[in-house]
DNA sequence: AACAGGGGCAACCGCTTGCCG
DNA sequence: TCGGCAAGCGGTTGCCCCTGT
């Protein structure tokens, strides 16, 4: 069955011959493609216009960059995909010379498998459920956990953490060592795990610049610290040196924060947490899918406590939280390098199960061009959005310059 | 050397969106 | 406002090539 647009005529399908390519290139070069449906006719091709268009866009365009993807392109794809999802055309716009089809194929054939191999869900970029389970050393299990969230499960296994099967085992870039083996030689005590006061609390925190060197990521690891800033640990509980890094040091379980960064996020509303895992409206807004993504300060019904957080966890999306030390206005969302000068950004995963510092450790002093672009975009959309309930569609805003 | 299986990539399919009469 | 058409886009398929047995 051919395309509906060309079902009336006999058209050739399948791979393009060099002669066909030549005809199409010659025609487009001379006449352009004002109307694709008329291109095959005028170019002397027995193809439908749609096929011609695809061939031109995906293969014959002179500005296409062929060949394998660079490491930076790969990181860019992962970064943008984390935010946009499978919007290949939008992702491709961040990669000059690459087509959406190419990006899509590269994702499906390569990146996707890498992420899965690393225990990350390629859709959400968070730990796969199976991997989360492994955090608990296989002991206990969710069945014994009434709240059903990852942290509570982890809490029930604090002893195991001390024994070596810490959550850092899986989140460490060194997790290539499979999940059934002992973690890298990182002294558990160095992680300053903040034990929640309330077993029902549900947040797994991350970001430990303190032990960056010990958890150095292997080359090629997507979440490696490309900025030479150390890091590489995807999960921990508290930045031990927030005063130096300027990173948020939060103890959600105890409802305190040793840094003001998160409190600034809410634009006055601030962020608070109590022993029951409740969040203020401003933080709840960050936790919501689109609104949370790009700032709608509305607390959905039933979002008040852990139950609400669990709901949000169904729609895993990540919010990048601006570091207080950078001094950007409240409700400004940024992805930045996290270099020594700017300190590490805290990246809060709205799944509320862990904090993803991947973007923070990406950049360092050598933040990618994408980081900068997205930074501008993100700032723009936030500043423009005003943080009110009427803030527009986040995705649309993200694409405003595409 | 022959074959099977898997991976990568080009192309297709069908739905959505935008434009225009 | 509505319908038709073309383009855009994401998901899927199928072919080709490489690698392992």
Describe this structure in words.
Its main location: nucleus. Residues 8-60, 61-115 form the HTH myb-type domain. This protein is 37% helix and 3% strand. It is an all-alpha fold. Among the domains are: 18-60, Orthogonal Bundle (Arc Repressor Mutant, subunit A), CATH 1.10.10; 71-118, Orthogonal Bundle (Arc Repressor Mutant, subunit A), CATH 1.10.10. A hairpin with a 4-residue loop joins strand 1 and strand 2 (256-257). The structure holds a DNA duplex (21 and 21 nucleotides).
What is the CATH C-level name of the domain at 71-118? Mainly Alpha
CATH architecture of the domain at 71-118: Orthogonal Bundle
How many strand segments? Answer: 4
User: Which structural class fits the helix and strand makeup?
Assistant: mainly alpha
Shape: elongated
Which superfamily, in CATH terms, is the homologous superfamily of the domain at 71-118? Homeodomain-like
Biggest sheet strand order reads 1-2
Count of alpha and pi helical runs: 18
Biggest sheet character? 2 strands, antiparallel
Give the low-confidence spans: 1-8, 135-402
Residue-averaged pLDDT: 49
Domain HTH myb-type: 8-60, 61-115
Domain Myb-like: 8-60, 61-111
Pfam families: Myb_DNA-binding
InterPro entries: Homeodomain-like_sf, Myb_dom, Plant_SW-associated_TFs, SANT/Myb
Please give the structural blueprint.
Layout: H1 18-31, H2 39-43, H3 49-60, H4 71-84, H5 88-92, H6 100-117, H7 129-134, H8 150-155, H9 158-163, H10 167-171, H11 242-245, E1 250-251, E2 256-257, H12 261-265, H13 281-287, H14 290-293, H15 306-313, E3 318-321, E4 346-349, H16 358-363, H17 369-385, H18 394-398
The protein binds a DNA duplex (21 and 21 nucleotides) through helix 3 and helix 6.
């Amino acid at each position: 069955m051919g395309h509906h647009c060309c079902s009336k005529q006999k058209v050739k399908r399948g791979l393009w011959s060099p002669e066909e390519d030549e005809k199409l290139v010659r025609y487009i070069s001379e006449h352009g493609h004002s109307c694709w449906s008329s291109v095959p006719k005028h170019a002397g091709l027995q193809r439908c216009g749609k096929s011609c268009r695809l061939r031109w866009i995906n293969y014959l365009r002179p500005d296409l960059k062929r060949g394998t993807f660079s490491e930076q392109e790969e990181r860019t794809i992962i970064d943008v995909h984390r935010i946009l999802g499978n919007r290949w055309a939008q992702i491709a716009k961040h990669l000059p010379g690459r087509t959406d089809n190419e990006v899509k194929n590269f994702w499906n054939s390569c990146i996707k498998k890498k992420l899965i191999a690393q225990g990350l869900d390629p859709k959400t970029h968070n730990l796969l459920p199976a991997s989360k389970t492994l955090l608990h050393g296989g002991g206990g299990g969710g069945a014994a956990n009434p709240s059903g969230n990852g942290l509570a499960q982890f809490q029930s296994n604090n002893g195991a953490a001390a024994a070596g099967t810490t959550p850092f085992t899986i989140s460490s870039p060194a997790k290539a060592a499979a999940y059934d083996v002992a973690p890298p030689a990182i002294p558990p005590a160095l992680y300053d795990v903040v034990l929640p006061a309330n077993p029902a609390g549900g947040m797994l925190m991350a970001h430990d610049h303190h032990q960056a060197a010990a958890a150095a990521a292997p080359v090629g690891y997507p979440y490696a610290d490309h900025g030479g800033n150390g890091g590489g640990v995807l999960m921990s509980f508290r930045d031990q040196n927030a005063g130096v890094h300027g990173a948020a040091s939060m103890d959600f379980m105890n409802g305190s924060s040793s840094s003001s960064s998160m409190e600034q996020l809410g634009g006055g509303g601030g962020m608070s947490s109590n022993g029951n895992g409740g969040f203020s409206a401003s933080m709840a807004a960050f936790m919501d899918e689109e609104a949370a993504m790009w700032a709608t300060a509305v607390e959905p019904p039933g979002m008040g406590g852990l139950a609400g957080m669990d709901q949000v966890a169904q729609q895993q999306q990540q919010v990048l939280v601006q570091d207080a030390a950078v001094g950007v206005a409240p409700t400004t969302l940024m992805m930045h390098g996290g270099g020594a000068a700017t300190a590490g950004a805290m990246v809060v995963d709205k799944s509320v199960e862990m904090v993803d510092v991947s973007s923070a450790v990406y950049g360092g002093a050598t933040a990618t061009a994408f980081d900068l672009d997205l930074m501008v975009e993100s700032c723009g959309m936030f500043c423009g959005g005003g943080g009110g309930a009427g803030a527009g569609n986040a995705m649309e805003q993200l694409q405003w310059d595409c």
